Amino acid sequence: MNKILKIQNLTKNFGNVSAVSNISIEVEEGTIHSIIGPNGAGKSTFFNMISGVIPPSDGYVYYKDKDITGFESYKLPHMGIAKCFQITNVFPKLTVKENVWASIFSCSHKSKIDLFKSMNDFEAIDKETKKIVSDVGLSHKIDDKAEELSHGQQRMLEMAITLGAKPDLLLLDEPTQGLAPEATVEMTELIRQLSKKYTILLIEHKMHIVMEISKIITVLNFGEKIEEGSPNKIKNSKKVQDAYLGRK
Ligand SMILES: Nc1ncnc2c1ncn2[C@@H]1O[C@H](COP(=O)(O)OP(=O)(O)OP(=O)(O)O)[C@@H](O)[C@H]1O
Ligand SMILES: [Mg+2]
């Protein structure tokens, strides 16, 4: 199986705090690979190094065998890596359609020449916009302003904006955080559907979701990788149980 993302010995020290220590993982194309661990385990730090928010102290990140270690965030969408941010990141005064349209447009013109787009291109972007809006279940809201949507719908819109970048690899940082139970179920189902088309690296606190949708789970504790494997293996791991109960 093709490994779309390879992380080797990734490390981050904040002064004396070793937030992430020597972590290696390989993410198989077309799967959901989840990162879990108790509070302070190093999940966000690990994610932030992959997505170019902070540079690693040591180690490597390879995407499709290209060394992207320390690449800044803004370079990644054009390479096929998109991160869905925890903080809602939509234009409130624009409609659902305009938000998604802008995302597709901005990621589709890779050179200045492309700025002079033909009508055909605009029609293609329109079509793509409708498809993505439909994929996230917002067709009935397509002409509503983002600010008029419920919180759950805004999170779906945020996902649509992320998909507008046409990623191969989706980095999802707690996509169900703050969602009501019904919206959580919808988001979980959406992630499951998206995994048919995209590779997904997921941080998620809600264990039942992780167990339900992941193919592989990596468990961090105190900045170290303590276990990795199928949901079944993780469920039955004494090391993982101890970590969650606060036993070293
Ligand atoms: N900018 C920073 N400066 C100093 N220490 C930091 C910084 N960011 C994170 N840390 C520390 O690194 C460790 C890992 O933090 P991190 O936020 O990555 O954990 P997490 O697994 O995402 O936790 P949570 O589940 O609470 O979100 C913690 O001890 C944290 O206090
Ligand atoms: Mg975190």
Provide tags for this entry:
248 residues, alpha/beta, Rossmann fold, six-stranded mixed sheet, four-stranded antiparallel sheet, 9 helices, 10 strands, 35% helix, globular, binds adenosine-5'-triphosphate, binds magnesium ion
Layout: helices, strands, pairs:
Elements: E1 3-14, E2 17-28, E3 32-36, H1 43-50, E4 58-63, E5 66-67, H2 76-79, E6 81-84, H3 96-108, H4 119-135, H5 151-163, E7 169-173, H6 181-194, E8 199-203, H7 207-213, E9 216-221, E10 224-229, H8 231-235, H9 238-244
Parallel strand pairs: 3-8, 3-9, 6-7, 7-8
Antiparallel strand pairs: 1-2, 1-4, 4-5, 9-10
Helix pairs in contact: 3-4, 3-5
Helicity level: 25-40%
**Alpha-beta classification:** alpha/beta
Helices and strands, in N-to-C order? EEEHEEHEHHHEHEHEEHH
CATH architecture of the largest domain: 3-Layer(aba) Sandwich
Compact overview of the structure:
The protein has 248 residues and is α/β, with parallel strands linked by helices. The protein is 35% helix and 25% strand.
Structure write-up:
With 248 residues, the chain is α/β, with parallel strands linked by helices. 35% of the residues lie in helices and 25% in strands. The protein is built from 9 helices and 10 strands. The strands form 2 sheets. It has a 6-stranded mixed beta sheet with strand order 6-7-8-3-9-10, with helices on both faces. A 4-stranded antiparallel beta sheet has the order 2-1-4-5, covered by helices on one side. Bound molecules: adenosine-5'-triphosphate (ATP) and magnesium ion (MG). Magnesium ion (MG) binds next to helix 1.
